[in-house]
Amino acid sequence: IKNDPPFTYKGEIQASTFKHWCHEIWNWVQRGCLSERVGIELSGKYLAGSAYQFYECDILDLGQRYTLTEYFKHLFDYIFPADFWMQQRDKFDTCEQQEWSVMDFLCCLHELADYWGSRR
Predict the structure, then answer these.
(1) pLDDT tens-digit profile of 38-59?
(2) How far is residue 76's CA from residue 90's CA, in Å, rounded to a whole number?
(3) Domain of life of the organism in this record (predicted)?
């Protein structure tokens, strides 16, 4: 089975896109039987914009050694504003169904709760 490469993450401040990229990198490393160190080194090919700036500074220039989990956390902290989780919590607290279908509204609540809950 061919191990498809992950998409290129450009540093968008969108939690679902970041989470999707992390999931793809994790699977790509595991399926490719790569060490975490090699996976992180090769992941730079799938970064652009501000995400690549982090990679260039932390991994290439400073030679930081991370586990994949630590790498994702440090990349997140570099890309997203410091109060991102508070913003997500505020969105959750003020979320209203309005014209959304029940399923769309429920998905929105679950997405907000997932991101907010994972940082407690």
Answers:
(1) 999 999 999 999 999 999 999 9
(2) 19
(3) Eukaryota
Give the Cα separation of 88 and 39 in Å (integer). Answer: 30
Which pair of tokens denotes residue 107? 């998905």
Residues 6 or more apart from 98 whose CB is under 8 A from it? Answer: none
Q: 24, 54, 56, 61: which is closest to 39 by C-alpha?
A: 24
Of 24, 118, 12, 10, nearest to 73 (Cα)? 118
Query: Considering the chain, what percentage of its residues have pLDDT values greater than 70?
Result: 87
Residues 68-82 have pLDDT tens digits of 999 999 999 999 988
Residue 51 to residue 22: CA distance in whole angstroms: 12
Q: What is this structure's pTM?
A: 0.77
For the beta carbon of residue 96, count every other beta carbon within 10 angstroms.
Answer: 7
pLDDT score at 107: 77
State the distance between the two ends of the chain, measured CA to CA, in whole angstroms.
38
